[in-house]
Amino acid sequence: MWRAFSWYQRVLAHHPYKANMASGTVIMVVGDTAAQTIELHNGQLQSRSVARTAVMGSWAFCGDVPLNIFLFRAVDRLVGAMGIPIQASLGLSAVKGVLFFAPGAALRNPMFLTYATAVEHGVDNWMAGRSPTADSQACEVVIRDKLSTDLWTILSDSARYWVPVNTLVFYCVPPAFRILSTSMFATVWLTYLSLVQHKPRNTR
To answer: Where are the alpha helices (DSSP H) in the chain?
Structure first.
């Protein structure tokens, strides 16, 4: 275990972007796998979907982790300009946590719902032998329904979960491991997001 951790430290030091993006993608795959396990247990799925997991993993690789990298650096620059040190007190770490959460939540959650719904629609069409853009109007209806019915719930739940987590990460975790730590906490959150994304719904 220690050898694996030491190896990861070396990879993280030499290839921070690649290491964080690969780690975040694996964690997203774990999150969706957990969500599908719950859905199978509850009778909401008949079988696992590898395509769904691939789409969710692609969101982490293309959207979630790059946004985390950008936000961590932006927050560190902002708080540096405010005179807050990188390793700050618990109270100042809470300020950092809120500063990290607010723009991230405003960007990440609607982007996730739109991206996952649109790409899953295209993949389903492709696997059925249709054009990926077939029936795009129906996809737009589903996206609008998710943004109107799910977005506020996701935002409020994310505040309750992520503000304390972000505070803990800024307070306890060295900067080099913050993105990885956030990704590990994200396993629980991404399981939740996958369940919301794939819950049964009626759209007219």
So the answer is: 2-14, 16-41, 50-59, 65-81, 90-127, 136-149, 151-172, 178-197
The label of the residue with tokens 């979630």 reads 64
Measuring CA to CA, which residue among 167, 175, 40, 1 is closest to residue 100? 167
- Structure confidence at residue 202 (pLDDT): 62
Distance between CA atoms of residues 69 and 64, nearest Å: 9
CB 79 within 8 A of CB 129: no
Environment class of 91 (CB within 10 Å of its CB; exposed 0-12, middle 13-18, buried 19+) = exposed
Angle between helix axes 16-41 and 65-81 (nearest 10 degrees) is 120
CA 54 → CA 25, 61, 112, 123, distances in Å? Answer: 9, 10, 14, 10
Cα dist from 125 to 49, 54, 89, 178, whole Å: 15, 15, 51, 38
What is the arithmetic mean of pLDDT over 29-35?
Answer: 89
pTM score of the predicted model: 0.77
